[in-house]
């Protein structure tokens, strides 16, 4: 007989056999995550772009530290820097390293909403 350990769900504390969250919280969490990020495929991001963006963030951080250049706001300290397309792929932008702009998540989201 196999003993399955139950662990408390990370969100609600209900004992669950899942790795981290109970079925209900897992479903909610995945839904929220998908809404926030969209799938990588939907956004046209692949491994090469992820690496290009990560390299741009690393270079920016090495040169400027945790500092967001700002999008329609003054530059400000930010530790959650991300790389984004300057010209969106939907508008013909490429995944090359000269089409990467480093912004914090907040500025990135604002820019994307434009
Ligand atoms: Zn739960
Ligand atoms: Zn910012």
UniProtKB/TrEMBL annotation:
TM region(s), chain numbering: none
Coiled coil (residue ranges): none
A Pfam family reported for this protein in Swiss-Prot or TrEMBL: HNH
Name listed for the protein in its UniProt record: HNH endonuclease
Domain HNH per the UniProt entry, residue ranges: 79-113
Keywords: Endonuclease, Hydrolase, Nuclease
Keyword presence, Mitochondrion: no
GO molecular function: endonuclease activity
CDD domains hit by this protein: HNHc
Gene3D superfamilies: 1.10.30.50
Keyword Ribonucleoprotein: no
InterPro entries: HNH (IPR002711), HNH_nuc (IPR003615)
């Amino acid at each position: 007989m196999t003993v399955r350990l139950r662990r408390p769900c990370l969100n609600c504390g209900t004992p669950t056999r899942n790795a981290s969250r109970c079925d209900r919280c897992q479903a909610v969490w995945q839904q929220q995550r998908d809404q926030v990020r969209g799938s990588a495929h939907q956004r046209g991001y692949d491994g090469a772009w992820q690496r290009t963006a990560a390299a741009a963030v690393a270079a920016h951080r090495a040169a400027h530290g945790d500092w967001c250049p700002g999008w329609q706001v003054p530059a400000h300290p930010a530790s959650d820097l991300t790389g984004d397309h300057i010209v969106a792929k939907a508008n013909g932008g490429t995944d090359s390293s000269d089409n990467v702009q480093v912004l914090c998540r907040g500025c990135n989201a604002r820019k994307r909403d434009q």
